[in-house]
Predict the structure.
Amino acid sequence: MSNSLPGRDSQKKMAPNPLNKEYAIRHYEPANDDFRNSSVLVPLIAWKNELEVLLTLRTQDINHGGQLSFPGGGKEGDETIFETALREAQEEIGLHNDGVKITGTLTSLYVGHSDNMVTPVVAFLEREQLFTPNPNEVDEIISVSLDELIEEKNLVYEEWNLRGTPYRVPFWNIHRVPLWGATAMMMSELIELYQDFLQDQRK
């Protein structure tokens, strides 16, 4: 999957942009190399009629609390990014690895607020299973179809005040909590790949 990715241009379509030109648009690249390597699992539910992606609503008292995100976290020891993503998904949502097929990665994204270089690991969940939220990290587990994310009516732009600066923020209005920020940027690349797939299927 990672051989021909849309890359940063696709991610930036869902990036918040400052309205005040005095504030530079983020380049989403680290200033040095002492960041933490992290990964998230992008779980695609493949056992239903429509392809759905799974998201978690993070508890309020952790990093990026109260936001929709993919399950994931920081790399530990000699783990690969794939092992990290699977371990974090097991801890956060009780994922069972049986029937989980990893297909590759999306473009890594630097998240300056937490100083993490995050690599999204895409996996198809081919066997039906029940998920259990870890109450220390996850308030809710939801899933949304990729077709729903394509619909223009679900893509919204608003002006938000982020850390004292006004931004134009794109987000998906698919839950009582908006899907925005780094997770939306990673999702944007996934959706572009999905749309390319649909076009190829129609040929």
Remarks:
- Residues 8-202 form a domain with the Nucleoside Triphosphate Pyrophosphohydrolase fold (CATH 3.90.79.10).
- Helices lie at 8-12, 81-93, 146-150, 181-202.
- The chain has four helices and eleven strands.
